[in-house]
Model the fold of this input.
Amino acid sequence: MATLNVKALTFDVFGTVVDWRSSLIREGEALGKAKGLSVDWAKFADAWRGLYQPAMDEVRSGRRPWMKLDDLHRESLDKLLAQFGIKGFTEAEIDHLNRAWHRLDPWPDSVPGLTRLKRKFVLATLSNGNVALIVNMAKYGGLPWDAVLGAEVARHYKPQPECYRTTAALLGLAPGECLMVAAHNGDLGHASEVGLRTAFVPRPNEHGPGSNRDVSPARQWDIVAKDFQDLAQQLGC
Done:
């Protein structure tokens, strides 16, 4: 691993570090119970995540000016509330539900693994989440980031190369001195094209039981680890 010459680890967050799906289901069920609603919150969570890429595509393409992810999530949420026939929420309750993305639970190995990795490396987010979202999530889950970077800071959403390049540059590093850690083969592929090193950490439960999305490496990444503890072990932490 010494041959990698890596000084910083940059992390995809949604799915790689935190379990967005179970967290959204939990938040929806709590609010639904309080309001006496019968909703398939697993289906709702999947539909919300399903609008994630299309919303960012509008910004990436230039059809819309820059918008932070919180605002894109809110637009998607408003559509889904109508689609699922959910009524009776106050504005404060809708805002609280939208900010469920700020309260996502880390995977069990995330905090202990990151804590080990932090002893040796700079840890930074390279996420499409906006700064306030990622900071609040870190506070909620105890995620020990050194820096919160990525889309909002770069004003570009992944997989646009500027997102990866700007994150490395702001750390004062060449792309090859950064190791992109992600549970998504596509993310790693785009990072690799820009010159970042790559580490694949699968999260087979990200999309729920029975999903086969990104359960194994699509190619020979620099590192393949079973979780963050294993990643720390492989990197000598």
Q: What stands out?
A: The first strand starts at residue 8 and ends at 11. The chain has eleven helices and eight strands. The longest helix spans residues 20-35.
